[in-house]
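User: Some background: our group keeps a shared notebook of sequences we're curious about, and every so often someone picks one and asks for a predicted structure to add to the entry. Today it's my turn. The entry only has the sequence so far, pasted here. Could you supply the structure so I can complete it?
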Amino acid sequence: KQWYQRRVREVKKQRKKSRVAENEENKLNRSRARGMTAAQEYDVMEICVAGEVFIIPRTRVARYPQTLLGSPEVERYYEPSIGAYFFDRNRTVFEYIMRFYLSDGLIEFPTHLNENLLQMELDFFGIGWRDL
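Assistant: Of course. Here's the predicted structure to add to the notebook entry:
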């Protein structure tokens, strides 16, 4: 539990740093005034993986409803205290998983990645080798 609370504090700090620009801060304040998070207003998903926050348009993940991020099952991972979906997974591999969504299913994995780790992460997120 202490580890989780520490992780939440780290994520909050990181999110705070990422919103330094005044324009972004103004957008966030307008969203809060309407009772919405910026992610809800701009229809994006904020995804926290091992302490790093990734942002992706919901329309991109909706193209792949057979995957975890594209399915309603992803809501189990939403953490209201940080306003993001929280996954304690491998951040390096997740960067490539994000490319899957952003490049219409086309990604290349570097040869230095452990194949078992890669397969485990792809299985967790519901991305089969056929989808690549």
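Suggested note for the entry: Helices lie at 2-18, 22-33, 38-41, 58-62, 91-102, 115-124. The mean pLDDT is 79.
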